[in-house]
Design brief:
- There is one protein chain.
- This protein has five helices and five strands, in the order βαββαββααα.
- The protein is α+β, with helices and mostly antiparallel strands.
- A five-stranded antiparallel sheet has the order 2-3-1-5-4.
- Helix 1 packs across helix 2.
- The chain starts with 5 loop residues before the first strand and ends in an 11-residue tail after the last helix.
- 26% of the residues are buried.
Length: 169
């Protein structure tokens, strides 16, 4: 059996209005990133990133996006991120940019970084909340970054592979 090795890019979706983050979903981010890779690297980059690219996590309160791609092709994805200027969802174009925070080899290392980053963001966002209900909602969203179910899903996906990456690492 061949195991696919992946890289996980932990990114921050930066928008001018925090309320516009609520309009985003993982499909919109997936489409924007895939389009940026296609425009930056052409059909070759689009084909390489299409095989295993996925949006594993999106937090609509903090703007944290967790992307997965193959280890051999993560630089193509990484280099296309600055070309994203907006994300379109439900007919609305939301101007934004994506800031890459961390690149990890396992979902565990990215999860640890995400927890540290979210605790920093929690302190920053709690100052901006106006009511107790908002504070509770922000705390719940930031502290719900447990990716144990995603970890199990990732292990299941890594079991199957092809001969292309046999022995390459």
């Amino acid at each position: 059996m061949v195991r696919y090795k992946s890289r996980y890019l932990l990114c921050e979706l930066c928008v001018s209005e925090q309320s516009s983050l609520q309009l985003l979903d993982d499909r919109a981010v997936f489409t924007a990133v895939r389009g940026a890779v296609s425009s930056a690297h052409g059909d070759y980059g689009a084909a390489l990133c299409r095989t295993s690219f996925a949006v594993k996590y999106l937090n609509a309160h903090t703007g944290v996006v967790f992307l997965r791609c193959r280890k051999r092709h993560y630089r193509l994805l990484w280099s296309a991120l600055p070309f994203i200027t907006s994300v379109e969802n439900r007919g609305q174009r939301i101007p934004c940019f994506i800031n890459c925070l961390h690149i990890g080899g396992t979902i565990r290392t990215c999860q640890k970084f995400l927890i540290r980053y979210n605790t920093q963001q929690l302190h920053r966002m709690l100052r901006l909340c106006h009511s107790e209900a908002e504070r509770l909602e922000v705390r719940k969203a930031v502290l719900s970054c447990s990716l144990k179910s995603l970890e199990k899903e990732e292990e299941d996906e890594d079991v199957f592979g092809d001969e292309e990456e046999w022995g390459k690492g």
